[in-house]
Amino acid sequence: MAEELEQKDDPIIEQKKELISVMQEENSLLDVILKQQEIVHNCVRERNWDDLAKCMASLQSLSDDFAELEEKRTKLSEGINLSQDEEIAPVLSQVRGKLQKSKVENSVLNEFIMTTRKFLQGVFDSAVPASRNTLYSRDGKIRKPELQSMVLNKVV
User: Fold this and answer.
1) Cβ neighbourhood burial of 82 (10 Å; 0-12, 13-18, 19+)
2) Has residue 24 got a pLDDT over 80?
């Protein structure tokens, strides 16, 4: 009975319980973030720009919440070997797995955006021949060449 009372009052045990609680909150928040990333990916693929803006704002808010939880976790984990603790290690591996999945989703989306940007830049460079030389006015100020007008037919 005395040992049980000592365990309840032990600050390390309380710190571990709070740490596990924070990591479980992170785990739940990562589930929501992963779902939101999937929605963002679908919005980009379907070119639904209005929903994309809303999703990005929501994702930013979720990311801020996760950063706060991560700050708490960092403070609570001081002096504790997370990967060696039997109670904490399973929750830690879940959080790390979801973070890795989120990182992969981000890199796939970034690669898609970069590829699309390069493609569009190539189209504009070949469709709108722009003067590459620097032009100066009589005053010696740099003038940027104006784009020539261009008409695009939209195919739906």
Assistant:
1) middle
2) yes
34-54 per-position pLDDT tens digit: 999 999 989 988 888 899 999
DSSP string, 26-89: HHHHHHHHHHHHHHHHHHHHHT-HHHHHHHHHHHHHHHHHHHHHHHHHHHHTTT--TTT-TTTH
Amino acid identity of residue 3, one-letter, is E
Question: In sequence order, what are the beta bridge partners of 142?
Answer: 136
The amino acid at residue 82 is L
For the chain, the distance separating the N- and C-terminal CA atoms, rounded to the nearest angstrom, is 76
d(CA 56, CA 34) in angstroms, rounded, equals 13
Whether pTM > 0.90 for this model: the answer is no
